[in-house]
Amino acid sequence: MSTPMQTGLFTYFDGAVELEGYLALPDSLNAARQDLTTSRLPVVLVAHAWAGQDDFARARAHMLAELGYIGFAIDVYGKGFRGDSPEANSALMTPWMNDRAALRTRLLAAIDAARAFELADPERLGAIGFCFGGLCALDLARANAAGLRAAIAFHGLFTPPNLGEQQSIKSKVLALHGYDDPMAKPDALTAFENELTAANADWQVVAYGATSHAFTNPHAHDHANGMFYREIIANRAYGAMRALLAEAL
Question: Considering the entire predicted model, what is its pTM?
Answer without folding.
Answer: 0.95
